[in-house]
Structures are given as C-alpha cells and as structure tokens.
Amino acid sequence: MSVPGGLGKLEDATPELKAFCNEVKATVEEKVGKKYDVYTAKLYRPQTVQGTNYFVKVHVGGDDYIHLRLFEALPCDGQKRELHSIQTNKTESDEIVYF
Fold first, then answer.
1. Residues 34, 68: contact at Cβ < 8 Å?
2. How far apart are CA 43 and CA 85, in angstroms?
C-alpha cells in the first residue's frame, strides 16, 4: 500500500502511459537538445496528488535512459496533461525516485 502523496509501486508502463510519453516526445527532445531514434517508456511509479504525477523510465537507446515526470490533472480540473521535468544520464538500474 502506498502512502497518500508518496510514490506508488513500480509498474510496467501501460499503453495509455506510453501514449502520454509519446505526446511529450517533441518537448522532451527540445528541452534536452537531442533527437531520440529510440524512445520507449518501460516502467513508472505513480503519485496521487491533486491529479497524478507519473515518474517514468524511458529507454532512449543503447544503455541510455531518461526519467520523466508527467502530470495529469483531475477531470474536474480539465484533465490537463503536461511534462513537468526531465532527468537525463540515467541507466536501466537507476531507481525511479521523486524529483
């Protein structure tokens, strides 16, 4: 069981979350200054706030990964979806933590 406001358990990326990651791919590439030929969401940890934060591990080729923090507002707040932040220079073994 997760603590309210804490990060949930590690889960495989769902088709819906993979689609969300793909929606923000161009913004991610712009912010990090590179294009990704490989860009595949693998794992995530959710955090319930006034909406949901998704902390996502994305494979970007070779041994390289990035972590994304995505936010989805509640339906009553318009269910807005956005990229919040990015961590680069990650590996497959790096733990997904709050950032």
1. no
2. 16
pLDDT tens-digit series, residues 22-49: 999 999 999 999 999 999 999 999 999 8
d(CA 80, CA 68): 16
Name the phi and psi angles at 3, rounded to 5. Answer: -80, 135
pLDDT in tens, 55-66: 999 999 999 999
**Predicted structure pTM score:** 0.91
Token pair listed for 91:
């590996």
CA–CA separation, 9 and 58 (whole Å): 17
Is 29 within 8 Å of 50 (Cβ atoms)?
no
- Edge-to-edge strands of the sheet including 40-49? 11-12, 40-49, 51-59, 65-72, 81-90
- Cα Rg of the chain (Å, integer): 13
